[in-house]
């Protein structure tokens, strides 16, 4: 396969709300570039990027899919990302390696919640970007209105490059203000394109928009601004240079009119991308660590080899692949590299470029390029591989906190190893999906971004590992503590059964501690009434009962226990006896000290369109939540609240239902708070019932 230098590569990622046309555009680009000879359709399950059986079944993108095409002797790597919020991790990892983000917006629907969510990531990193207003052939298309919404809610720097001559069923041509031509397209699926000079109203509009573009470019550079003031214009050379620079520093966001399904506007977009989007060598350097020092990696094909694995793929018909971006030097099959994240040595196997499940083997890849390597032994998503002379660790990918959790239960015994292996594979493919065993709860807890994401992990276990599991509501990690004191919690353990008996006698004082202080044990024995050799056994017994809990089997916290009296038997006393006596004395004293149950409270931040605010706030109140504050962000309301964890099971799914899929939320642990008495009674009753059933 042809080799490309760093300056001949473009790396872009398509982002946006579900259904905005990212997959259709990807298919159209592959067709226009000659990588495929017929255009697949999402509803027919035959697109290049959505090849996973779950994607075909559901008609949505689930995985980020790296693709590529050659255009104008340049290699364009582009990544089709999911629009469904459950799979936001795929978007984040793709943006991490892209040099420019392309936000897809539907011309009829305008700016949607997925548009804003993904754009926030672009804005946060001050990343070069472009906007495609797609589906201009829709009968309800509102190109100008959508453009104004984009300027208002995404970026004031949105600047037209192509605009439609007509919309809806009459959308057959665009005006390209770089070429200053009207470009007309043949029937859908045809590559026929004709260019014509502009005249009349179209010429006037194009000249006005081109002047806006030139002014925007001039504003981004002081030298160009001076030239523009002096001459009243910019030369073509200055415009080209300034436009590239303005895009790189994110002070200008080009906007394109397009219909992905009818192939209208795609060639102009690709022409512009190859001419004005930054190559990896021109893009902003990637942050990294080198010998614990902060450094920036500038893409350099002559440097020491270094790459970042940003995605792992494990498909039955594709195999296990690590997908990477080369940041420095060049790599080839057989090259030995060090995983600087864990110190392990890896030898690169066959190298490929990908178009969905289709692979092309390559002998070499240079800095800036994106490719895949067959299974590595000890390297995972987020790891850096570098030469032994270059111990660099490229900035890791930062994923959001989980917003949903479920307990994994095997339907058959003996499947634990398969479950562990399968969920590890699921985590490798999507790091926002995590699994861990919680000893305190005695459950395997699966966490992620949404119910569909977790259900697909369960389906993976069934399809690939033949293991049946179910997801249930996880137990809540309650805490127990006391509000009062007990001066004399006493227990005498006596047991005589022939031969040597058992004897241990302790008297405890229990007191509450300030929240967060933890457990404190005080030895206040005077006169040796409890010999020193038994004191550690008393403390051990207290620690064990505090771990098991008294009311609900939950951990006891923030209690001070003072051992101030007791007795012993010269023959029958031993460590076991004092351990039992201590735990039983603690139980008695705990129940006499105004015990309470504490529950975990989470801070949640909810983003919803204003029309759903009342419903969402009412729902929060119904979940024993407390509103902490509200802000406005464009047409969206940001609601901050605190809600008990026990009331948040499947909340992300409920919120989507409440807001027609337009609400999102994030959560983080806040603190433990006392449970209301009516709720406490239910928790204790449920615990006692579960004990009886066991």
- What ranges have pLDDT less than 50 throughout 5 or more consecutive residues? none
Mean pLDDT: 93
Strand order of the largest sheet: 18-17-23-14-15-22-19-20
CATH architecture annotation of the largest domain: 3-Layer(aba) Sandwich
Q: Look at the structure and name the CATH superfamily of the largest domain.
A: P-loop containing nucleotide triphosphate hydrolases
> What would the CATH topology of the largest domain be?
Rossmann fold
Straight-line N-to-C gap: 64 Å
Oligomer: single chain
Task: Give the biggest sheet.
Answer: 8 strands, antiparallel
Range of strand content: 25-35%
C-alpha-based Rg, rounded: 32 Å
Q: Treating each run of at least 4 consecutive H or I residues as one helix, how many helices?
A: 16
Helix content: 25-40%
Q: What's the number of domains?
A: 5
CATH domain class name of the largest domain: Alpha Beta
Structural class label:
alpha+beta
Overall geometry: elongated
Count all strands and give the number. 38
């Amino acid at each position: 396969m042809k080799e490309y230098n760093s300056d001949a590569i473009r790396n872009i990622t398509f982002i946006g709300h579900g259904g905005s046309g990212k997959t259709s555009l990807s298919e159209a680009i592959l067709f226009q570039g000659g990588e495929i000879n017929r255009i697949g359709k999402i509803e027919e399950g035959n697109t290049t990027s959505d090849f996973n059986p779950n994607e075909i079944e559901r008609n949505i993108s689930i995985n980020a899919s790296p693709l590529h095409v050659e255009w104008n002797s340049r290699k364009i790597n582009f990544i089709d990302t999911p629009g469904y919020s459950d799979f936001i991790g795929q978007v984040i990892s793709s943006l991490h390696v892209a040099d420019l983000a392309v936000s897809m917006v539907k011309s009829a629907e305008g700016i949607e919640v997925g548009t804003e969510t993904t754009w926030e990531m672009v804005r946060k990193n001050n990343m070069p970007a472009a906007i495609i207003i797609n589906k201009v052939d829709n009968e309800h298309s509102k190109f100008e209105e959508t453009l104004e919404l984009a300027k208002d809610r995404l970026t004031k720097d949105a600047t037209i490059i192509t605009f439609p001559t007509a919309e809806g069923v009459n959308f057959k041509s665009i005006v390209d203000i770089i070429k200053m031509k009207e470009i007309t397209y043949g029937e859908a699926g045809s590559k026929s394109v004709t260019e014509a000079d502009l005249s009349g109203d179209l010429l006037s509009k194009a000249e006005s928009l081109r002047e806006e573009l030139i002014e925007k470019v001039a504003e981004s550079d002081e030298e160009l601004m001076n030239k523009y003031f002096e001459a009243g214009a910019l030369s073509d050379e200055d415009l080209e240079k300034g436009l590239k620079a303005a895009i790189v520093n994110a002070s200008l966001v080009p906007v394109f009119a397009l219909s992905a399904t009818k192939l209208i506007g795609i060639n102009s977009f690709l022409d512009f991308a190859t001419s004005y989007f930054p190559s990896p060598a021109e893009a902003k350097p990637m942050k990294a660590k080198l010998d614990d020092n902060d450094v920036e990696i500038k893409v350099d094909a002559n440097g020491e080899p270094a790459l970042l694995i940003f995605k792992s793929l494990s498909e039955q018909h594709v195999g296990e692949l690590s997908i990477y971006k080369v940041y420095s030097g060049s790599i080839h099959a057989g090259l030995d590299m060090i995983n600087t994240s864990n110190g392990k040595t890896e030898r690169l196997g066959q190298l490929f470029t990908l178009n969905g499940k289709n692979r092309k083997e390559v002998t070499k890849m240079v800095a800036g390029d994106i490719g895949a390597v067959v299974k590595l032994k000890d390297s995972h998503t987020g790891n850096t591989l570098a030469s032994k002379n270059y111990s660099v660790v490229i900035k890791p990918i930062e994923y959001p906190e989980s917003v949903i959790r479920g307990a994994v239960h095997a339907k058959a015994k003996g499947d634990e190893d398969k479950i562990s292996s399968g969920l590890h594979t699921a985590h490798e493919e999507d790091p926002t999906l995590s699994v861990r065993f919680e000893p305190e709860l005695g459950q395997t807890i699966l966490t992620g971004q949404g119910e569909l994401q977790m259900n697909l992990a369960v389906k993976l276990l069934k399809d690939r590992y033949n293991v049946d599991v179910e997801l249930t509501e996880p137990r809540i990690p309650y805490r127990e503590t006391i509000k009062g004191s007990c001066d004399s919690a006493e227990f005498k353990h006596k047991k005589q059964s022939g031969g040597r008996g058992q004897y241990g006698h302790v008297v405890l004082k229990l007191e509450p501690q300030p929240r967060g202080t933890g457990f404190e044990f005080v030895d206040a024995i005077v006169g040796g009434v409890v010999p020193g050799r038994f004191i550690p056994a008393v403390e051990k017994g207290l620690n064990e009962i505090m771990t098991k809990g008294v009311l609900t089997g939950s951990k006891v916290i923030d209690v001070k226990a003072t051992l101030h009296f007791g007795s012993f038997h010269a023959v029958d006393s031993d460590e076991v006896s004092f351990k039992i006596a201590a735990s039983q004395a603690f139980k008695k004293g705990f129940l006499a000290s105004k015990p309470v149950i504490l529950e975990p409270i989470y801070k949640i931040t909810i983003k919803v369109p204003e029309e759903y605010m009342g419903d969402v706030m009412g729902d929060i109140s119904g979940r024993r939540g407390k509103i902490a504050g509200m802000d406005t962000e464009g047409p969206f309301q940001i609601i901050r609240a605190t809600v008990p964890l026990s009331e948040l099971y499947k909340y992300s799914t409920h919120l989507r239902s409440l807001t027609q899929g337009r609400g999102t939320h994030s959560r983080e642990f806040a603190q433990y708070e006392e449970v209301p008495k009516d709720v406490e009674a239910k928790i204790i009753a449920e615990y006692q019932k579960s004990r009886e059933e066991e």
